[in-house]
């Protein structure tokens, strides 16, 4: 298995962190030992401990935001919103746990009662992504711990420093050392963790390719819970609207926020032919104005770099592929800083392409498709195996109703960006964007399983039919 790990700041190339890969068997064994004691604690105790975690994060808020910004390259203001989401997750999870996995008591026959309660699964493996290295794994870890599970958390090998700090904050808050374990490593450690026999479930956020591989791995293990969030190829439809500038601003936010490294980012702008030139021109005008710089720059940038050189190379190669296969460049993707993974936002009209690749382009690369009518717009929006997020910008209430009804996505917005989903709602998609285990508010559903019990304090039973009569004569002899 891999051993030495390093993490470099995307914006500067400076070495940020180095360490060694962990031992999968050891970390799972420690978590397996810890979870029964953690689960035996009253729910009020677990809630109190997790609320202490919020206070600990608040005490280290600036340090955590700075580390996220340095390790991911995202602007400091963007990292600060991520830290706020980490803190907000606890109260949201407490409410979700009470609503979705609360206890129920029902009357039953012969004075008995029916109880519905929930039990934890045991050891949960959480595999986190690099784009939100604190918020997204925290969205699995908090509800998992709240339900009484223990957790082995493997952060992305591209953001180990944030993962390490996050686990230290849990421990500082009083979560038992073995109830939340950090497993550092790469793909090999991830495969070994998901395959481990003592893991009761896997909570994964990342690429479709990896998620599908995990799903295959679990095909013969129906007893394990699996929650997958695997990104998207998300459409934003722009239709009749009196405010082209506002529509274009929503498109730019959808496509270029966090350098396009959001699973809900808009990859495709689907626009009515009659307004296409005006909308595209306005989106380009906004994209041209976006400041691209290092996370702590002044004035504050809208975009930082993408995560690393490999990601930047992949995006520029994708742009060249689209251009050489029928795409018409509107705004070229440029690498402004040699040797660092900065890329400029790119826009390309792919209407004329015979076959458009159905892949997640994880970066600021927006493809434009012009369509003649609204039915064609919805058909184009659904022209993907993914199904995470979709937005209609403009249009009438009747058209939004048609869009909401017919588009295949787990997040469907009107006159709002495709990204920026609320943690107080379910978060997940259909197709190869997920496996019908939405996270955020609905994470409570996959962190505990329901148990129904029929209960009475003393045994009481009778059989009313189907018995032979008692032979009283034999008793008198």
Automatic annotation (TrEMBL):
Stretches assigned to the Aldehyde dehydrogenase domain: 7-445
Domain of life: Bacteria
Active site: 229
GO MF term set: succinylglutamate-semialdehyde dehydrogenase activity
Cited PROSITE patterns: ALDEHYDE_DEHYDR_CYS, ALDEHYDE_DEHYDR_GLU
Keyword Magnesium among UniProt keywords: no
Pfam family membership, one: Aldedh
GO terms classed as biological process: L-arginine catabolic process
InterPro entries in alphabetical order: Ald_DH/histidinol_DH, Ald_DH_C, Ald_DH_CS_CYS, Ald_DH_CS_GLU, Ald_DH_N, Aldehyde_DH_dom, SuccinylGlu_semiald_DH_AstD
CDD domains recorded: ALDH_SGSD_AstD
Keywords: Arginine metabolism, NAD, Oxidoreductase
Record-stated family: Belongs to the aldehyde dehydrogenase family.
Protein known as: N-succinylglutamate 5-semialdehyde dehydrogenase
């Amino acid at each position: 298995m891999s051993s030495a790990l390093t993490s470099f700041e995307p914006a500067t190339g400076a070495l940020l962190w180095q360490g060694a890969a962990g031992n999968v068997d050891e970390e799972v064994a420690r978590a397996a030992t810890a979870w029964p004691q953690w689960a035996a604690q009253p729910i009020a105790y677990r809630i109190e401990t997790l609320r202490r975690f919020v206070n600990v994060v608040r005490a280290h808020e600036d340090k955590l935001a700075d580390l996220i910004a340095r390790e991911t390259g995202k602007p400091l203001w963007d990292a600060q919103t991520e830290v706020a989401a980490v803190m907000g997750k606890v109260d949201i999870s407490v409410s979700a746990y009470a609503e979705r996995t609360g206890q129920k008591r029902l009357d039953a026959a012969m004075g008995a009662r029916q109880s519905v309660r929930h039990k934890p699964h045991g050891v949960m493996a959480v595999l986190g992504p690099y784009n939100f290295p604190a918020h997204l794994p925290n969205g699995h870890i908090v509800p998992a711990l709240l339900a009484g599970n223990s957790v082995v958390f493997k952060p992305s090998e591209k953001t180990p420093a944030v993962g390490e700090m996050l686990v230290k904050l849990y421990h500082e808050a009083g979560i038992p050392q073995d109830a939340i374990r950090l497993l550092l490593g790469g793909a090999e450690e991830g495969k070994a963790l998901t395959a481990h026999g003592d893991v009761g479930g896997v909570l994964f956020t990342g690429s479709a390719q990896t998620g599908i591989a995990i799903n295959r791995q679990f095909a013969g293990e129906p007893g394990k819970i699996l929650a997958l969030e695997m990104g998207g190829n998300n459409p934003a439809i722009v239709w009749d609207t009196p405010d082209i500038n506002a529509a274009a601003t929503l498109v730019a936010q959808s496509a270029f926020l966090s350098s396009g490294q959001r699973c809900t980012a808009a990859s495709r702008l689907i626009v009515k032919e009659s307004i296409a030139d005006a909308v595209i021109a306005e989106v380009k005008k906004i994209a041209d104005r976006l400041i691209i710089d290092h996370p702590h720059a002044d004035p504050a940038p809208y975009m930082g770099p993408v995560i690393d050189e490999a990601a930047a190379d992949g995006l520029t190669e994708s742009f060249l592929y689209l251009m050489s296969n029928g795409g018409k460049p509107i705004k070229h993707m440029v690498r402004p800083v040699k040797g660092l993974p900065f890329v400029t936002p790119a826009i390309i009209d792919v209407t004329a392409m015979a076959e458009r690749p159905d892949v997640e382009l994880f970066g600021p690369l927006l493809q434009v498709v012009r369509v003649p009518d609204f039915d064609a717009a919805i058909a184009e929006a659904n022209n993907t195996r993914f199904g995470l997020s979709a937005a209609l910008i403009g249009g009438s209430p009747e058209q939004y109703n048609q869009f909401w009804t017919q588009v295949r996505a787990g997040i469907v917005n009107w006159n709002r960006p495709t990204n920026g989903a609320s943690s107080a709602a379910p978060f997940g998609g259909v197709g190869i964007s997920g496996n019908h285990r939405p996270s955020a508010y609905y994470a409570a559903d996959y962190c505990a399983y329901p148990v129904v019990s029929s209960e009475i304090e003393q045994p009481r039973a009778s059989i009313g039919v189907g018995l032979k009569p008692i032979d009283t004569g034999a008793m008198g002899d």
